[in-house]
Amino acid sequence: MDLRSLTIGQVRDGLLARQFSATELTRDALAFAGSQNSLTSAYLHFSPERALAAAAAVDEKIASGEDPGPLAGVPVAVKDVIVTKGVRTTCGSKLLANYIPPYDATAITRLEEAGGVILGKTNCDEFAMGSSNENSAFCPVRNPVAPDRVPGGSSGGSAAAVAQGTATLALGSDTGGSIRQPASFCGVVGVTPTYGRVSRYGLTAFASSLDHIGPLARTVRDAATLLQVIAGRDPMDATSAAATVPDYTQSLDGRVKGLKLGLPREYLRDLASETGTLIAAGVETLRGLGCEIREISLPATDYAIGCYYIIATAEASSNLARFDGVRYTSRSKASGTLSDMYRHTRGEGFGAECKRRIMLGTYVLSAGYYDAYYLKAQKVRSLIARDFARAFSEVDAIVAPVSPFPAFKLGEKIDDPLAMYLSDIYTITGSLAGIPCMSVPCGLTAGGLPVGMQILAKHFDEPTMFRLADAFERARAN
Amino acid sequence: MKITEEEVRYVADLANLDLTDAEVHKFRADLDEILGHVERLNEIDTAGVEPMAQVLFEGGATDTWRDDRERACLGTDVALANAPLAGAGYFKVPKVIER
Lengths: 478, 99
What we know:
Chain A is an alpha/beta fold.
């Protein structure tokens, strides 16, 4: 059994045939992940006690003839912005270096009820703010495919762990591309579900109107299976949707003939690179499967970056106000009044990118600027959502790049925040509209770097998105 | 220039963020560049467009309601466990006003 290529189905078969126990698999997976972690720093810390307890529960169920659940014994990595009771949750920030949450996120509860085994917590950009994972307060993550390059961000550790094989599945979070872009950079599958599809209870809030929890996996089927487990209404999150969760694996039937796919003109215009060539080849593969390809227009695309970086930073400046040295975070040793304590704690504790976003967000919400920036951005957001609604009256799904370029070198873009923000263009639009989107591996550049193809679908139409991604994955394998 | 160092200091004050002089200098330049890009939003006509504050989806009027029943809560000890300073069942903070 090779942990690096293990799938949910292989774990299930092995457990039910008594080839290995969940406890044996968990011990092996923890040992392997521990031995490999210095290569990538994908994990910030491991949770062996919790993992072995979850594995023992699976073994007991199997021994007593009970169904051990759809994720029985499967090794899972969890981004360290999702709270885990009794297991340190740092959000990649110095401020929360010693924070031990008193409760579990709903996604964590559901994952463990389904038999999943959480090995540990993965590295990420501080409070999920970044596109390279270089904003982690602890250490950057290295891309397992090319260790001098970034894994993408902000769910860089989760993508790296799945690519490296130190987890079979991972949970990430996505606000403007933070699951899809690292999935693309590391050559794995990453899914941002419809806004409201997965409860955010226990996800540390960054930008509440844009935040999502979603799966990363090595196959479309595994990603769909994980989403199945974590999706659905949760009374603890009023923004979670009541819509019925369909059986996603039912949609992996290869029936894509006649599907109408849109190629956004605005996305391909500037893509005269190797990424563009690979996406074009991917589109031809889909055409070969009988899909009907047509060009579409999403005219508000040019304004998406400006729109996103106003809304996301405005919401972040409000959400991050709670990290103030009183309830969860460490406190500055500098003396003074309560007000001085807040300022020192936050000034010493937040890294440069969080400070930059708090500043931008506070500025656009401040007196005299609210209408010009925040309200304007919310109106532009309506136009971006309308673009998609119009497109989906003509096509069943949209195919696009994930990132304008493959994984870049560590340090290459860190000193140019605007350039880093601009690279989020293809993922941000879907986030603003709240539609389901995913990255599926599309090929390698001449230098061997993975490139992902993005598939976007209508609200709650994950089945069409998965059907297409699965058919594409199988066509590429043949 | 979209933003001055004085405005950066004012915004940092609003955000309860202690910045060094070097940070004020750097963030002024960064925010200036980002706001310059954001200005492009003025090119697009949004007359009569409703602001989008939230992603909305179809659902029943009471879908997000739950029964108004008592539920278990964390309790004081657990809620205070991560506080840098606590005592007598409270979060402790420095003096609010210096006399």
